[in-house]
């Protein structure tokens, strides 16, 4: 066994960590195809690979940067908390996949100029590697998501050079990298050869502060060798860098207004272009402030992920993430749980996002051995901890977007963490320190928690949380600002309860927002679906817990992201009486970059529109405007006010919608008038089948256009439309959130048999012109049940009106998953049009983003492709809907509304499916018309459904009207 693999030292032979930057000094990119050979263990790895003459002609090729499991070498493996190897630090398994990489490259004569040195830089290698240049060993390094540099001057030669790198999947460093993600290996970030001309700048530290009281900026750049600084725009030309320059008036950098000043540092050896952002971060008065203002994080946790490339991201993908975030009103990123590719931070500087930069550290797996031997409190690991923090801070210290350092994630507590904090505070006193897992917050500047319930966040917001035993520690923590570094677990359908969190953040100044867990589903593309944990034969895995993002693996926004965008919108538009209220929820900027327009829609059809003029509205202020003069309407009418970008921005074009509000200006003209049964003109006729039935009583029952089964009382046709008529449905395919929590709702529901209800007909009667079908619906082995009574009558225009009455019987102690009707329509039905909330899905506790309007979609488009199939696609508050195809269809009208789902498989199919490809269109379109569904909550990790969104078992009535839609005539 190679000893460095199981030593505590984080590396050997490496240069000191320093700022990541580019300059005009020459560089040679070493990305591209490398020769590659994977061995199942170190013992089986070839010998002599470092020798420049080694014959690698029998090897294959692998691109650098990449992760070898994403290219068919070995397999990805997913665990959340578990180490996929025995816990016996610092040892690792003998089965330690080892990848050998080789390539050659040319260096021109005189490269870098006289006296130039050369540095070989690796931006990220997972998890441990040794490198040789021209046969000379350079050293080794751990710290997968951190840069490593080797001095190579003495080994580099003009002409052909040969570089060999040996990478091991497992190393002692793996104990410090137990993040909840795929285990993947290889050289997955850039490799570069840097010329360091004589007199080059080795390192520098930009200190650019902003004084909000005076508007002045101060600038000082600490440099490793004397350097000159030019910021032409500020009138600083060739001044000494390492002196304090005060500029009377600068525009500050904020995530909302990411003003950067172009600058240049120059030394005898090189010129370094810089982009400087002036801002000051403080913790004062118990609040986290930037430029003197409390900031509110509308954040996300971002892992680096691509469904084909894993954690090796292109710049295009990084940019796409930021554009998507900005377009969805997100203003902050926690780089969970490691420093990202540095280009990502440059883009955050440029486009504007607050960044909590987290060190590459997690030892969560020690949880399962009661934190015995946790490296965080073991002095043998001290150097490795400090090494990781130093490499994080030194690399990223010049990014204005980085406003807080995070020591790592879920690594317990201990003196090594404390030392990391102390070192960081000394090195960079200008940024606060974050670390969640120490709930006492002893060595941090911000009280941080994950998945705390609304109730607890409220208590913390009032600074009324449970006290710590130690009074001093308690006083310290109680004085700190509070953030939820993770909340609202975006796994599958959800999260529910975002609005309630946001209200708390807006109510309590101490609650400075949070970071939704997490940005992206880490699904791996496999044919036409996405794979998750267990799909690669892992002996230990955590299934689809790896797909818990706001965007799907291919970065399609999920309904959760659309909801988040609405909940965190920086402008709130509401109405009170005849006044519109517009509130500016930005922390810094006014609303002059937005233009406001309105539309009036009657029954979802635009009948008038206009623009609104707003007075100047500074951050935090609100104003009232009269509702614009609107034309008379008769149908249900809504005024929608939209705030859109007035001009193109670097992250979205003019016209991009930032915020909206809707006001009902005229209610529906009254629910459809119930059928009167007094005329007797359309009595229930019990017709006797004449077509070959053996018994006189075998024929169907009819009511107007409706045909009913005599034995079950189920509607079988409306006019010419054959269907499998509505009956009570209480079941939904459990969501990931239903499957989480203690106890999980799914278990509770299955426990009482809600997934296997039986229907018993009690009686089918004619009553006053109505057909009344009484049933009892109940699971085997239980005495609870539901009386479901279907009252069919005739409404105006030959419509069939159905009132479903539901009455629970027995001791119901569980909420219903859903309450409504299910039916099946012919498979040729393919289009759905509706007037209600849309265009996307909505649930009781995730419905802010669904606006009232008229929408249209195919049955396919109504589905949300959660990586793990589950309940989805519910359209809320539907007034009416038509479900049609080439041969006509059905119109359903609510009294007043219903929730609508239509899919080509049943809830049972959805429940049984493990991947999206398991969902195969059947011979019907299955439709649910619901009175309600149980909320979503976020119990896959965090609190469940809030009481106000629970669907408590109770008596209820749902009324809908059905009419056949005639086939279109050509
Ligand atoms: C947190 C952890 C994250 C992730 C999340 C659940 O405890 O910090 O990395 O595992 O839970 O998805």
Automatic annotation (TrEMBL):
- Name a GO CC annotation attached to this entry: beta-galactosidase complex
Q: Name one GO biological process term.
A: lactose catabolic process
Any Pfam family: Bgal_small_N
Q: Which GO terms describe its molecular function?
A: beta-galactosidase activity; carbohydrate binding
Annotated Beta galactosidase small chain/ domain ranges read: 702-963
Q: What is its EC number?
A: 3.2.1.23
Query: What does UniProt give as the signal peptide span?
Result: none
Protein name in UniProt: Beta-galactosidase
> Which PROSITE patterns does the entry mention?
GLYCOSYL_HYDROL_F2_1, GLYCOSYL_HYDROL_F2_2
Species this protein is from: Allostreptomyces psammosilenae
Question: What's the source species' lineage?
Answer: Bacteria, Bacillati, Actinomycetota, Actinomycetes, Kitasatosporales
Alphabetized UniProt keyword annotations: Glycosidase, Hydrolase
Catalyses which reaction? Hydrolysis of terminal non-reducing beta-D-galactose residues in beta-D-galactosides
Q: What class of enzyme is it?
A: hydrolase
What family is reported?
Belongs to the glycosyl hydrolase 2 family.
Q: Which InterPro entries match?
A: B-gal_small/dom_5 (IPR004199), Bact_Beta-galactosidase (IPR050347), Beta-gal/glucu_dom_sf (IPR036156), Gal_mutarotase_sf_dom (IPR011013), Galactose-bd-like_sf (IPR008979), GH (IPR017853), GH-type_carb-bd (IPR014718), Glyco_hydro_2 (IPR006101)
Span list, region Disordered:
1-24, 668-701
